[in-house]
Amino acid sequence: MGAVLSTKKATKMGVDEVEVVESCMVAPCQETPRRGMWLSPLDLMLVNRGLTPAVYFYPYRSGLSDFFDVARLKAAMAMDGRLDMDGNGVSALVALVAFYPLAGRLGMDGNDRAEIDCTGEGALLVVARSDLTIDDLCGFLPSPELRTLFVPRVEDYSPSVLCAVQVTFFKCGGVALGTALHHVAVNAISAFHFLQTWSAFSRVGGAAALELPFHDRTLLRARPPPFVHSDAFSVFCPKLNLSVEPSETVVTQAFVVSKDQITTLKRACIGSDGGRVSTFYALSAHAWRCVCVARRLPPDATTRLTFPASVQHSMRPPLPPGYCGNGIIWLGAAGKVRDVTSSESEDLVFVAGQISSAVRRMDDELVRSVIDYFVMTILRSTSHET
């Protein structure tokens, strides 16, 4: 999530609009495992993605004396023994104790294979202030300005840090929470789990009742020997190129879809069986059609929609709740352009059905085939073995 600066304000804003007043490494207060954490093939595929930035905005809430209190934030992240979080002297479990890999560093094992070195060195916490207000920002789109102002620059401290957070206090009393978490350590689901845990410990300390993370990534190890099912590539997309040529300009735009519009799209996707259609299927089908029309693709051409899918519930047995690691593969749905772009309402049933069919075909065998494929091809060619 993020915000893009307005055209008027963007010309006046730079790094000097935010002043860093404190930066420190927050380490777990309790002893955590010291070991090299093995990374699965699905983790290693993202080792070069680096840190994933995100920014969350919080308007000021009057009547809360401890609104984003820095001492409480530090205590909840590392449990500073000088602060009694729950009021009765009971030490609470804290975020970097539960998510101890995030307090480590990215490293290499003896075979030059990437791993998380669980050193307990800590996460980077930056506190900043700004004379801007939240109203000076408009929209909620990713932008280079947003990252420069509100996401901590890890390279200024330690390039191997896996978790960095910046808390910026606005003149209006609101707060921007900027995070930079390494993709090899967590995906979006795990990152949100960490933030939820930290938030809960900040609010209620030891009274927080949350699902703990599960750190054993060997559940996604390749099979001995690895084997790729012949049907896997009918839905699995092994290579996804999202790079942009230096001469190209990427424009980010958000489209607001109302509840009534979503309901209309869902109805257009319901087939003769009357089965339920999810919001994801309906919106994806509509977006796929719009992109094909905008690109003016030849009617006889084959078009392919790719999208990420979680493997958690497709495996047998399923991955445990709270699995902390990357568990996403890319699937693809294909069809002729003429079928995808048809203006007949019943043909949106076909488009949504192609997406639904790809999702339904993701089972344990497909997931295992994807993992084995990565090990047999891409990872082996880059010296990352199983």
UniProtKB/TrEMBL annotation:
Span of the signal peptide: none
Organism: Triticum aestivum
Keyword terms of this UniProt record: Acyltransferase, Transferase
The family this protein is said to belong to: Belongs to the plant acyltransferase family.
GO molecular-function terms, A-Z: acyltransferase activity, transferring groups other than amino-acyl groups
Full protein name: Uncharacterized protein
Transcription regulation keyword on record: no
Entry superkingdom: Eukaryota
Keyword Protease belongs to the record: no
